[in-house]
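Suppose you are handed only these lines of text.
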Amino acid sequence: MTNIGQGDVATGCNAFDVSRIREQFPILAQRVRGKPLVYLDNAATTQKPQVVLDRLSRYYSAENANIHRGVYALSQDATEAYEGARRKVAAFLNAAEPAEIIFTRNATEGINLIAQTFGRSTVAAGDEVVISAMEHHSNIVPWQLLCEEKGARLRVVPINDAGELMLDELEKLLGPRTKLVSIVHMSNSLGTINPVRQVVELAHGLDIPVLIDGSQAAYHMSVDVRALDCDFYVVTGHKLYGPTGIGALYGRRHLLDAMPPYQGGGDMIKSVTFERTTYNELPHKFEAGTPHIAGAIGLGAAVGFLNDVGFDGISLYERQLLDYATEALSKVQGLCFIGTACDKASILSFVLEGVHPHDIGTVVDAEGVAIRTGHHCTQPVMDRFGVPATARASLAMYNTTDDIDHLVAALSKVREVFS
Ligand SMILES: Cc1ncc(COP(=O)(O)O)c(C=O)c1O
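From them, the structure of the protein bound to pyridoxal-5'-phosphate can be written out as follows.
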């Protein structure tokens, strides 16, 4: 096998040099349990490049002030940095305007925001919300809560044995009672990339809006919300090489304008009297209280970093790494992949015959290899495949073939221990 981790991947534009990428992530130089850290839990959260760490430190050491209401220079600078970050995220997702980007705590809050505003104002008894069988709990539970409150019905599009969405079944589920389709772009437990453009086309054919959960997709591939033609798209900062506690929701202006506010408080109002309150313009209508200013600015730095590296290089490199890893892991005795979609990215979920996934995680951890084991917040996926849990290695741009080789060696230790 070619060792793609050691050299450049010619991308057609910039060469992707993984060793130069790794130098930008100080945490990767660490030793864990006396071994070099092999971090393969990127689907849970990614590590942070120096440029993001520096931006957070600069904000708190030189720019910290509350935003939007201060007339003094520091507050105006902080406001400009915060709104600048919104412009960067808008450009990153190709939103039509920055006002279509609402900062949230994470993807979970973005989905809950839609359920509590758009959902509560449009879904009535007997209506339906359509999701898929591969959703993260974040894209299941908010809809269950809504459906319970309204007497509506949650419909679930099944997946096939490879972990692919069954589009023909989706088509059958859509109808006059469907008020929203909410679907994951890329599955965190299977790696499947869904044909979201086709989903949007099918739904829009019946005037049904579509929310896409881009938590996993947005750090592996370029996302263009206008090309996808979706109505809402959520991302979460900590998977985008940015800080925790910050995420973003994209929504079409006319939908956001028509939606009631999410939470009440400072900044989301135009005027308040005891008799009547009027609400602020977009995007502030949905950002009550002091936001995570540093987080948004850090997220702005993270998307700047992603742009600088470039998705052409990232996607191609990660594709080659996934191929390498798939081939290497498939040689491990007794290993069975869960999630073998034709179109997938950067996730290797697997079970090992006779070994509980938690035991796999513990033994490989002793070798310095960090993978995740469990249901990955997708219990219905585990039920679908008849397993209690899987072991999951998930890749990011800084992983190398060496990392994969370490994982394979650690899995041999698992075999030794449990044979
Ligand atoms: C597909 C998917 N959706 C939603 C989420 C929730 O992200 P967060 O916890 O940052 O809100 C995750 C996190 O793992 C995810 O992978």
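What can we learn from it? Residues 43, 106-108, 136, 138-139, 184, 188, 213, 215-216, 236, 377 surround pyridoxal-5'-phosphate (CB under 6 Å). DSSP finds 14 helices and 19 strands in the chain.
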